[in-house]
Amino acid sequence: MPSLSDYLVLSAILFAIGTAGVLIRRNIITILLSVEIMLNAVNLSFVAFGRALGTADGQIIVFFVMTVAAAEAAVGLAIVIGLFRHRESLNPSTFTSLKW
Amino acid sequence: MGSEAIAFYLFGAVAVIASLLVISQRNPIYSVLLLIASFGALSGLYVLLEAPFVAVTQIIVYAGAIMVLFLFVVMLLNAPHEETERDERLHAFKKPGPVRFGAVLAAALATELAWALTRAGGETGAFPGAAVSSVRAIGKALFTEYAFPFEVTSILILVAMVGAVVLAKRDARG
What we know:
The structure holds 2 protein chains of 2 kinds. Chain A is about 80% helix and about 0% strand. By secondary structure, chain A is mostly helical. Chain A has one domain (about 5-90): Orthogonal Bundle (Helix Hairpins). In chain A, helix 2 runs antiparallel to helix 3 (about 55-85). The N and C termini of chain A lie far apart (about 55 Å). Chain B has 2 domains: about 1-85, NADH-ubiquinone/plastoquinone oxidoreductase chain 6, subunit NuoJ (Four Helix Bundle (Hemerythrin (Met), subunit A)), CATH 1.20.120.1200; about 135-174. Chain B is globular. Chain B has helices spanning about 5-25, 30-50, 50-75, 100-120, 135-145, 145-170. Chain B contains 6 helices and no strands. The interface between A and B is large, with 71 and 87 residues.
């Protein structure tokens, strides 16, 4: 019978994988996917905590997180399309217009 | 080891391995498909946690809607392969500036995680018996206690939709 700490360790591992993806990948789409991994890791710990506390609040927060993730994906991918039109590249190092 | 523990380790292993493969693929199409597999495993974990509403939403909204959006964009842009020199991932510490900074941050995070895992021995025991898992309870709470955040969510979706259309639209002047 897995306990709360098992779920939290799994959530931490997934979050670390997502963070590593954001930090080391050089492709905007993969970076957005890594952000989704991080959001899902947090969702897992929300549900596990809600289960441990015996309330439905954890699942409701997950509902809101999913909504925000959908909005983030839509706007982020629109920005990716716009950037690709300007530079013909998905490498974040090529977008340096705002660099001082 | 009970069947629940076996299912937990199975789903957890699938989720972790699929996520690792997501960030190690060069082709974004494979990344997206592997992430769908990872979300399927997470959905199984939600079932184990007696949260069927979240499990179904995970499949429908994440795997069904958001990942299809990603797939659309990957195919629309038609730039599948990451254009980096071959040795970038192996020698991230030798690269200048931000890449080295990111590698240092990732290494620090891994160290912290390993440290936390060695101290996570405190056994919290099994979950208490009764779980609030009915969709009825969740719906009731959403429309009474959480009515205001729920309505704000609809505005958020509307703004995101308009923003996505405006951002992705071709410039009318050009």
